[in-house]
Structure to design on (89 residues):
């Protein structure tokens, strides 16, 4: 995720992540976390709201291009392992 035009926006769900499994798509805008508006919040604030105990649900209200109304997506929190590719130089 990243802040674009002051809105938390999905850049690309990480392969194998809970967000990918829940159906998030690049460009989705997250408006609320568990009913709390993200208006005026920083990237760090929003990430702190989304993070939580592994195995617990979090409901994100999403606005998707091509839809008129925001809709909820519930994600079960899990540990996300990232693969780091070393710079060969």
């Amino acid at each position: 995720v990243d802040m674009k035009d002051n809105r938390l926006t999905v850049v690309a769900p990480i392969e194998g992540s809970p967000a990918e499994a829940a159906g998030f798509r690049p460009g989705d805008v997250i408006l609320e976390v568990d009913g709390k508006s993200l208006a005026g919040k920083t990237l760090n604030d929003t990430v702190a709201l989304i993070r939580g105990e592994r195995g617990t649900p979090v409901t994100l209200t999403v606005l998707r291009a091509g839809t008129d109304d925001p809709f909820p997506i519930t994600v079960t929190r899990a540990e996300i392992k990232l693969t780091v590719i070393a710079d060969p130089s």
User: Anything to note?
Assistant: The mean pLDDT is 90.
